[in-house]
Amino acid sequence: MTIANADKLYIDGRWVGASGNSVFRVVTPATEALFTEVAEAHEPDIDRAVAAARVAFDRGGWPQLSHAKRAGYLTALGNALTAETPAIARAWSKEMGIVLPAAEGVAGWAGHVYHYYAGLAETFQFEEVKPLQSGNFGLLVREAVGVVAAIIPWNAPPLLIAYKIAPALLAGCTVILKASPEAPSAAYAVAAAAEAIGLPAGVLNVLTADRAASELLVRDPRVDKVTFTGSSLAGKRIASICGERIARCTLELGGKSAALVLDDADIDQVADVMAGNSTLMTGQVCAALTRVVVSRSRQGALLDALAGRFSRIVVGDPLEQGTQMGPLAMARQRDRVESYIAAGKAEGAMLVTGGGRPAHLDRGYYVEPTLFGNVDNRSTIAQEEIFGPVLSVIPVDSEEAAVAIANDSSFGLSGGVFTHDADRAYRVARQMRTGTVGQNGQAGDFFNIAFGGFKQSGIGREGGVEGLLPFLETKSVVLAAAPSHLAIN
């Protein structure tokens, strides 16, 4: 995919040059070769984008359009992006190393997200009648929160962009979409689609900036809400800035999620699921199940089964047919993962398989799928988010201890319970302090309900109806009589 207008930014409905001449170099992690260069936004560009979004919200008429009309734009946007799925997926694979079939599947689903939120225009109650004892006519109305800064990470931009801007646009918000310098192509595709469908000027503005420039978005008093996906460290910084000015924020942050293997679970099924979960996007998934908690008596059998699966995973070029796991997204990410592997060994965990770089690959940011056993839940690899294909197996002596281990974490994003008994899975799930729990694997369709975390895994929810609410403010209106559009004839 050649990124059209890569030397420009999309502001106020037009492709414009950046205020400076600097660019971001995007490197293909499989080859370490240059993939593309995109314009770098600086402070004047941030200012222009915020100003355009502010004007579009305050004077452009976007919030005053009917929800049905805004839904029409969302449907068109979804259609345009769906048509570009093969190109978006290929660029995503070249940017961060996700294997192409997975990229195609996830990027294709992103198009459906726009259609889903368009459908809410007909079913969601933006205005509710509330009976009042006074005899007056009460209304609870939900209105757009205002100008939104949507800050996107590098690991899954096509999907994360969709889950941020689709509900924001339906609500009547205007948006500044800030792409990651490491993976900007999906954001450029969205900007091109917005231009193609005639989205009104200023409603969606797209730029790529570094962390310092991005902080200007968070600090700007003209920005009413920040929605961010990324590390817990960056999320804390954003939350503190938003707190200073009481700006709204949704934060989808890190995870260290546990899979609890109960005594009736099938070991082979657990191994199959966890091998796939651990290597999806080379483990660079915030909701990945990275701690497996199993009874001490079954740990050996599980480690043997997992080691067999891990040793057969085909690691290589993510664009080649048959590859099951690609590289990590960048050199610093590989350095990070390798440092955690070293910490695991130094702290006494048993390295069962992996832990090095694949011998057959002499370039690219690759690391082997890595499995540790006899992991102490207090250790570094059990407590900190690694963001790579590293799985820790933690033995326990009881179901109660397993739940306690699952909850002994500063994170609380995802979780799994392996058992054939749905009632037992439900009982255990309700004890886990985490935002999503799935039976016999990760809750893959959690976004249809709501996705977000407890504790340091974030604030707020994305996906489903719950993902629309953070882009709305609630207003109570009390009238002497029903307004004409609600009056009963």
Key structural traits:
6-stranded mixed β-sheet, Aldehyde Dehydrogenase, Chain A, domain 1, Aldehyde Dehydrogenase, Chain A, domain 2, alpha/beta, 2 domains, 489 residues
Protein architecture, described:
The protein has 489 residues and is an alpha/beta fold. The protein folds into 2 domains: 8-253 and 457-477, Aldehyde Dehydrogenase, Chain A, domain 1 (3-Layer(aba) Sandwich), CATH 3.40.605; 257-447, Aldehyde Dehydrogenase, Chain A, domain 2 (3-Layer(aba) Sandwich). The protein is 38% helix and 22% strand. It has 14 helices and 22 strands. It has a 7-stranded mixed β-sheet, sandwiched between helices. Helix 2 runs antiparallel to helix 5 (157-171). The longest helix has 24 residues, at 100-123. The protein is globular, with a radius of gyration of 23 Å.
Q: Give average pLDDT, whole number.
A: 96
Rounded to the nearest angstrom, the distance between the terminal CA atoms is: 57 Å
Shape: globular
Count of domain modules: 2
Query: Can you give the helix content as a percent range?
Result: 25-40%
Spatial sequence of strands, sheet with the most strands: 14-15-16-13-12-18-19
Q: From the 3D structure, determine the CATH topology of the largest domain.
A: Aldehyde Dehydrogenase, Chain A, domain 1
Strand count: 22
Count of alpha and pi helical runs: 14
Note poorly predicted spans: none
Instruction: Just give the CATH class of the largest domain.
Output: Alpha Beta
CATH homologous superfamily descriptor of the largest domain: Aldehyde Dehydrogenase, Chain A, domain 1
**CATH architecture label name of the largest domain:** 3-Layer(aba) Sandwich
Largest sheet: 7 strands, mixed
Proportion of β residues?
A: 15-25%
Compute the gyration radius: what is it? 23 Å
- The secondary-structure class comes to alpha/beta
